[in-house]
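Q: Convert this sequence to structure tokens.
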Amino acid sequence: MNGLWWRCLSLCIFIGTSIGAPASEPSSDDNYWAQRSRFLIEESQVSLGGRMHFEYGERAANNILMAAKEEEVDEGFVDPSSFLPARNFLTVVDEVRGSSTFQIIEKMPKGAALHIHDTALTSADFVFENITFRDDLYVCRPADGSFQFRFRRVADKKVTCASSEGWELLADLRANSSIKDEVDTRIRQAMTMIVPDPAKAYPNVNVAWIAFQNIFITIEPMLTYLPVYEDYYYQGLYELYDDNVLYLELRSTLPTLYDLDGNQYGPIEVARLYKETTERFVKNHPDFIGTRLIYAPLRNANDRQMDDYLTTFAALRKEFPDFVIGFDLVGQEEKGEPLARFVDKLRAVSPSIRLFLHAGETNWNGLSTDENLIDAILLNATRIGHGYALLKHPRVLELAVEREVAIEVNPISNQTILDFGARAVSATTSTRLS
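A:
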């Protein structure tokens, strides 16, 4: 609380000093407008991309894109309700896909995707249309309306199912025409946060996070079936490639995989699957550059679990020194442990190991969650995930610019999970990095 009090006092002193400062001398009209013009140019130069120099046909391409963007902005200025970025993404997905700006961006080369999580790699359509129609997929349907999935040879009575029907073969349910449509509709709904009224369905950040995490609780037992996981990852690479993304840095918890014979596969085997599947994809698509792996277990850990994480990470680095490139912690920051708890353990990691840390993914100020940014920068993080609380930590922002620490910005993710609308999205995109 003392830190917050001093911030308030400093703000009051700053405001008081600003109010008491004498005004600058007025200038002539010519000087004023010349000064204003220089001001706009200087401001543009320090904004993101302000110092880029176009080559060949790049300026013409940029002009086409900017014309489409400016048309949308102009229409939104006249009618704010028509401005898609200001509305909840879950309600305007189809309109975004139909916009001129999106259709131009869709065709453009993207370079690299540096912030993607393992079980959020493909479209929900692929999971539903491909994976849920595979043989040997059983489902448990508890009374609360949720679904539990598992691949198996036969229904295993030893595995608890909170349903009077027990484990049921999904193919048999679909063969029953009286319930097929209802079952498929509910499965689709369980794989997405799209609802008619997101504000009502997700009234606060905790509710939104629960809904978000429930998606992965539902699909992960399907995805972690060994043959499916390999196909899922390959499909994820293909969908990125189809969007003109040519390089991926994937964050993975390295979940335990299983097969129908009861075998389980740990972090080393899962990392090897990623590496070998990537090599197969590159062989089939030679212009795809490749993938690197960031080990990213859950941040809601105790000291013993963190020791296990770092032991696993060391083993991964030893086995795959050119493939496993860094470490992160994932999950809702407000509910997880702050980075400060694990600083000594993380500092003990070899300086040659890079940290790619989720930090500052919060609206709060003066609490352990936004202060994760301080620990991220002091731990020499290579990149910071989300980090929109940077605007409340100007010294961290200054050091991020000075040290060229990239900020991984994803306004759609922030708006969808945190439901704080265009205000925070605008604040995020206003961050200026030279």
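The radius of gyration is 25 Å.
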